[in-house]
Design goal:
This protein is an alpha+beta fold. Helix content is 36%, strand content 24%. The chain is built from 4 helices and 7 strands. It starts with a strand and ends in a 14-residue tail after the last helix.
């Protein structure tokens, strides 16, 4: 069974590797040079934009949880922040990144991560959770829909 704990400085390499893998999946249709640029710049962007410390990101009331397997190996992560809805001003918990390493997928651990996000939202007195998911990520979308998430906005891009 998987366990969740708070991020530690020693998790940095595993976190970055999985976060880059997740980001590259999102950029799968991008030109190779864009994908390479992402690989090269992402660690620095994380540290500067998200005010990274030894405890992980600190911007926007962030908390980063690490998912471990039975042997204590890095299996995934859940990075949460608070964001204010621009239309209403109401704060919500936002899932910045939710990722599970390939060898650990299809074990129900994604549900465990979403349940942790719900727990954090309730502890903070927040009424909703938001997240982004790739339109063609059928497995993740199915999980989120099963857990009560609804599509409220679509983002479209046209490469020129």
């Amino acid at each position: 069974m998987a366990t969740l704990r708070r991020y530690r400085e020693s998790d940095w390499e595993s976190f970055v590797a999985l976060d880059i893998e997740t980001g590259l999946a999102t950029l799968r249709f991008a030109p190779d040079e864009d994908r390479q640029r992402f690989r090269e710049r992402w660690p620095a962007v994380l540290k500067s934009r998200y005010v990274w410390t030894d405890e992980g990101p600190t911007a926007n009331k962030a908390v980063l949880y690490v998912l471990e397997d039975d042997e204590g190996l890095y299996a995934g992560h859940l990075w949460l922040t608070e964001q204010e809805d621009l239309r209403t001003g109401i704060p919500r918990l936002w899932v910045n990144t939710m990722a599970i390493a390939k060898q650990y997928r299809s074990r129900g651990w994604g549900r465990l991560l979403v349940e942790k996000a719900e727990e954090v939202a309730r502890e903070r007195g927040l009424r909703s959770i938001g997240l982004g998911v790739d339109a063609d990520n059928v497995v993740a979308r199915k999980l989120y829909e099963e857990m009560g998430f609804e599509t409220v906005r679509l983002r479209m891009i046209r490469n020129l």
